[in-house]
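Worked example 2:
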Amino acid sequence: MMKKTIIITSIIVLLAIIAMIIISKLSGRKDLSILFTEVQYGDFEVVVTTTGELQAEVSTDIKGPEGLSSRNMRFGGIKISDLVPEGTEVKAGDYVATLDRSSVDNSLKDELDRLESLETDLLKKQLDTTISLGNLRDELLNLKFNMDEAEITLEQSQYEPPTTIRQARISLDKAQRSYDQAVSNYDLKVRQARADIRDIELQVSKQRRKVAEMQDIIQKFVISAPADGMVIYKREWGGAKRKVGSEISAWDPVVATLPDLTSMISKTYVNEIDVSKVKAGQRVRLTVDAFPEKSYTGVVLSVANIGEQLPNTDAKVFEVISKIDGSDPILRPSMTTGNQIITKTFSDVLFIPLETVFATIDSIPFVYKKDGTRQVVVLGESNENDVIVEQGLKEGERLYLTIPEDGEKFKLQGDDLIAIIKERKKQEAEEEAKRLQNGNQPQNMMPENMTPEKMREFMQNLTPEQREAMRQMRGSGRPGQMPGRPAGGSDTTVRMQRVRTPNQ
């Protein structure tokens, strides 16, 4: 009985192993139907594919107090201490944020102390002036008495000897001069005192205005919505959104925005190698990651003339703004978009998948046909999936998607097209060399300080035309400059980018 059980168990295990092997082989077997494709005929589009972010075309800024930019203020960065959640629907006048007033309160205390000190100085000056001018008036009165006495003495000496009369006249003259000098000094002291008091009064008035302005600004540290809308946090220069703890300043006082959701745009960045293809007015197809089942159309509004450096990369990108047709209430700022910018359209052309195109050692493109031949093809524009075939194929012909096992036995056809391909490459290389010699270098130059790994990747992405242009450029005495494809930004196909040699 035991022996029988062992035998049955062994058989079951063996069958299970056989089943697993069969399943494994079946799962690893490729469906022969997907090894072939047909030459297609119809409309063809060349697109630049990018990732963007939704923004409102028009929005109202929610700002901190305008007084932060006053000449009387010397505020540094002021932190946000409280902020309503992003996406909050608000009405005009509703609470939005609070700014940290601790540093401003300290500044206000200093200014209040200065105001108190100036007011004390003013009061002291007024008291001192009153006392000093009072003393001067007493002195004037005494001098006036002395002058009156001298005058009386002179009148009484009319019948005295001439010497006495002369002495009395001299005394009167001295008293008159002393009095006149004292009056002049008094007037001067009065004017000086008034000027000093007026100067302190101006300082006090200026300081009072400054304190009042600071107190008014502090009252505005509680920020309200200027209009109805949805609160969207402001993006800073580095790309991060404002939050609790972020700083605003007189030069950048915006805390958040209230976007107009009826008119949306997509902001994206295109690689420098692709930016020459993108023009204002081109149509755009858009999708939104949040709603993949939805699709939209739009138009390119603007293309930046000056590139930007992507953080932590050598890539240069150019800002492209596209406006979405119509409106949709589900669209919100900061949503990620997929943008297909249609740069060119062709009608009634033949095209094939890029996977079907291979190349000889000297970069002559060809395809493997199901009839057992290798057909040289003259290629045109390409997009991310397909490439136009200008000569060499007919509609409906079946092509291999991969190199056939006996591909080396396939006879090469289309020798007459090789001369056309080489002539075209020569013309393109000459045109590129001319542009370079005229100082019209393409923007897609090789980034500096490339590692050997990046260099190999860079060279692999070059087209045959670009390699020829590099050779021309070396010959024109422009070392260190060569066309390339920087990383990041847009994802579009360059002609022959995905063309492979049979040994790949």
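The first helix runs from residue 2 to 28. Confidence is low (pLDDT under 50) at residues 26-33, 440-457, 471-489, 491-498.
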